Amino acid sequence: MKKALALVLALVMVLGLAACGGGNETQQPSGGGTPAPATTPDGNSGGGEVANKDKPLVWFNRQPSNSSTGELDMDALNFNGSTYYVGFDANQGAELQGQMILDYITAHIDEIDRNGDGIIGYVLAIGDIGHNDSIARTRGVRKALDTAVEEGGVIKSDAVGVNADGSATAVKDGKLTINGKEYTVRELASQEMKNSAGATWDAATAGNTIGTWVSTFGDQIDIVASNNDGMGMAMFNAWSKENNVPTFGYDANADAVAAIAEGYGGTISQHADVQAYLTLRVLRNALDGVDIDTGIGTADDAGNVLSADVFKYVESERSYYALNVAVTADNYNDFLDATKPYAPVANQLDTSAHPTKNVWLNIYNSADNFLSATYQPLLQNYDDLLNLNVEYIGGDGQTEANITNRLGNPSQYDAFAINMVKTDNSASYTALLNQ
Ligand code: BGC
Ligand code: CA
Q1: Structure confidence by residue, pLDDT tens digits, 249-297
Q2: Which of 102, 105, 264, 284 is the most core-located residue (most Cβ within 10 A)?
Q3: Helix (H), strand (E), coil (C) string for 347-414
Q4: Which protein residue has the closest C-alpha to ligand 1 atom 11?
């Protein structure tokens, strides 16, 4: 009897706390904590009771950071005790991409130099010179091909424009010794693929640019490298497929994986199936008020769990990072279905224990190949499994306001998932939640 009374009292206290979450400025930034559930006391969703600033928030794909220095924006990452970032390990993936290209060159050394001038020439499509993922990939390719130039201990990631004679200062001519013979590698050209309206990672721009590069360099181009598959496939379709020039991207979008059968050189899977899960899972856990590791490193009540070889969590950065895998002619058959939920975390949650909640989520650019063709379809599969009612907003890729204008009433939602246009712009969103 006494026990029951104590339980009721405890419950009343918990609900009371959740209801006045508004006054709670400094929730603990701890990964293992149990944040107050963002529900109304009657357990229903749509909670006007929890202040918007205390609701679970996940940044994904674009990590809050300074676009010039790459420094993480810890204020945004610690916005409240239920704030996280979900992305992937950019450096590990970038190294893999560089290695994949180097392995290809090594395996095809006898035919790679198309004009036989002793120089292996490549062109590089850069996504966004201020985006950490893009910077890492540019560096990864340059490092593996020995064209990297360091400044202050870091590899330069600037675009060179055109580098016909090897005199560019952001890169150098690399030297590779393969089967006892030395080859020169030159980054003939590189450019940020930004369209006139300002959208970055722009596939159409890459498709046009390859034409310009070909008219300048012709058969000096032996390899086409790209910071992502959207741009890589645009170049492949516009030119390299027909000319049998190996083209390498990143993301393992379904069309790119399928193109490996037609000569696309390879791509990197950033395990979008794991990232999309984590994006919604951290919100689910915060909303349920359970340990954040539930269904992640620790199996949940439905048996969902991730193994340590597919993700890592860095507590000091409040960030989950999926790990990457190279996808080449050797293994592409396993990656053809890019939008299939990852089997170890594809179990349906029970609605009685995990009632439906409303989530606002935006994709920064509805024209981004990776986000719209791979990531969003995955999110749409997981939202059902996790009982989340997600409203998807697609941005124009250029202005934050185009997206924030559509978050008119944050009080309608229980949690938020944000994909910024620019990694510096977290405040455009947090300002709306602080109101
Ligand atoms: C992806 C790109 C995408 C970019 C958008 C990157 O992680 O690899 O394909 O365009 O995110 O932010
Ligand atoms: Ca050559």
Answers
A1: 999 999 999 999 999 999 999 999 999 999 999 999 999 999 999 999 9
A2: 264
A3: CCCCCCCCCCEEEEEEECECCCHHHHHHHHHHHHHHHHHCCEEEEEEECECCCHHHHHCCCCCHHHCC
A4: 61
